């Protein structure tokens, strides 16, 4: 929609009002990639585009200026109110599948017993509402058998060292895992990722953080790795990035990663260094997160070089909310009367709690009538901070000028 000239506000409104149309698009994908959906295979951006873009283009030609109305009023023709009865479209079958899946997990036999798969999941700690929610999002989950699908996966995850209490979270994030063959898909995928340096001893943490990575195609993973190589990340660091932040494989290279890297270069920041130190930064929006932070610091008097230095020292700077975090802490920083250069030296200041760390420490320093550089004031432990304050107070009281 944005490529057709609509702005972000309009496209967001369209998405929020077009659930039936989105279900319709999902139905098209499921029909085209039926065998892949059955095993929980994650589609790549290219694969999705290959199916949907030609359809959307034909819809654009058919409706012209009424495209938005056609999408929002689907399945009714553009310009006709939704209340007017029309034949049920293929997308309704998606809704029916969701309803049937939820009904299936809720059913019980004459003795009041739940289906075996549901009872097993509840024994793991899952609430029935959680299971219903998964079935509503991914109807195939309700039909996975206990002995052939669910139990083998759970036992495999437990053998990897994943805590039993973490299993419900993993299934909620990626129920498709239950549909993947351990020997034909999941284990080979893990071995493939290990060739890129994913630490095999940390699979439990990787899967808990981002279980979807095990459902991605090799093409999708390789595209992410090729991008990291393209911007200059070493092979050794690629493995570390994939282990610490597997989410990076979920971002589109052409629509997300490369434009973000280009923006960082334009501001004097090395994208290879930044993605190694703080890969989650590449998941942020250039327009909503990165550019506003840069513009704020430039407006208050810091140079482009200062900003690049700050980010090189503390990559997480961009991950903080401008209005809820950076601005209030900047205003308090001014009240502390430190030289502005202290923030360039120690941008980690923005990572500390204003009310629980910064204000109490500065208050104690002022009350003691001593001066401590920003780094020492915040980065030391409570015990060490108190010792520094006492030592400075002792020197102050013993100096000739204090007599």
Question: What does this protein structure show overall?
Answer:
This is Transcription termination factor MTERF5, chloroplastic. Belongs to the mTERF family. This protein has 403 residues and is mostly helical. Among the domains are: 90 residues, no CATH class; 71 residues, no CATH class; 102 residues, Transcription termination factor 3, mitochondrial (Alpha Horseshoe), CATH 1.25.70. 63% of the residues lie in helices and 0% in strands. It has 23 helices and no strands. The chain is globular, with a radius of gyration of 27 Å. About 3% of the residues have low confidence.
- CATH H-level superfamily of the domain at 182-283: Transcription termination factor 3, mitochondrial
Q: Any idea of the CATH class of the domain at 182-283?
A: Mainly Alpha
Please give the count of helices: 23
What CATH architecture label of the domain at 182-283 applies?
Alpha Horseshoe
* Global mean pLDDT: 87
What portion of residues belong to β-strands? under 5%
What percent of the residues sit in helical stretches (DSSP H or I)? 55-70%
Number of strands: 0
The structural class is mainly alpha
**What's the helix-strand series?**
HHHHHHHHHHHHHHHHHHHHHHH
Q: Taking Cα atoms only, what radius of gyration do you get, to the nearest Å?
A: 27 Å
Biggest pleated sheet: none
**How does the overall form come out from the CA principal axes?**
globular
Low-confidence stretches: 79-92
Distance between the termini: 75 Å
Please name the CATH topology of the domain at 182-283. Answer: Transcription termination factor 3, mitochondrial
């Amino acid at each position: 929609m944005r490529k057709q000239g609509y702005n972000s506000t309009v496209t967001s409104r369209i998405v929020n009002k077009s659930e039936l149309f989105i279900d319709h698009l999902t139905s098209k994908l499921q029909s085209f990639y039926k065998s892949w959906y059955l095993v929980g295979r994650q589609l790549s951006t290219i694969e999705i585009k290959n199916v949907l873009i030609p359809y959307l283009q034909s819809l654009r030609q058919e409706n012209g200026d009424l495209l938005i109305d056609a999408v929002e009023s689907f399945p009714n023709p553009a310009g006709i109110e939704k209340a007017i009865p029309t034949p049920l479209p293929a997308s309704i079958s998606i809704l029916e599948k969701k309803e049937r899946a939820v009904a299936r997990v809720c059913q019980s036999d004459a003795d009041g017993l739940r289906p075996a798969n549901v009872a097993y999941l509840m024994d793991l700690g899952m609430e029935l509402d959680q299971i219903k929610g998964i079935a509503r999002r991914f109807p195939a989950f309700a039909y996975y058998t206990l002995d052939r699908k669910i139990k083998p996966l759970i036992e495999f995850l437990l053998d990897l060292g994943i805590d039993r209490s973490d299993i419900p979270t993993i299934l909620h994030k990626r129920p498709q895992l239950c549909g993947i063959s351990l020997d034909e898909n999941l284990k080979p995928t893990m071995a493939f990722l290990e060739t890129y340096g994913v630490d095999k001893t940390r699979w439990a943490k990787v899967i808990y953080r981002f279980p979807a990575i095990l459902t991605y195609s090799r093409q999708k993973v390789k595209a992410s790795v090729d991008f990291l190589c393209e911007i200059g990340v070493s092979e050794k660091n690629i493995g570390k990035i994939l282990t610490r932040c597997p989410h990076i494989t979920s971002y589109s290279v052409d629509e997300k990663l490369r434009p973000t890297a280009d923006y960082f270069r334009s501001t004097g920041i090395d994208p290879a260094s930044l993605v190694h130190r703080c890969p989650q930064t590449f998941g942020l929006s250039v327009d909503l997160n990165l550019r506003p932070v840069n513009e704020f610091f430039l407006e208050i008097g810091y140079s482009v070089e200062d900003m690049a230095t700050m980010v090189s020292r503390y990559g997480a700077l961009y991950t903080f909310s401008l209005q809820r975090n950076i601005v209030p802490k900047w205003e308090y920083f001014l009240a502390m009367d430190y030289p502005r250069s202290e923030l360039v030296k120690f941008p980690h200041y923005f990572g500390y709690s204003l009310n629980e760390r910064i204000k109490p420490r500065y208050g104690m320093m002022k009350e003691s009538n001593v001066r401590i550089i920003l780094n020492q004031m915040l980065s030391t432990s409570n015990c060490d901070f108190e010792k520094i304050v006492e030592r400075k107070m002792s020197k102050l009281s013993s100096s000739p000028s204090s007599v």
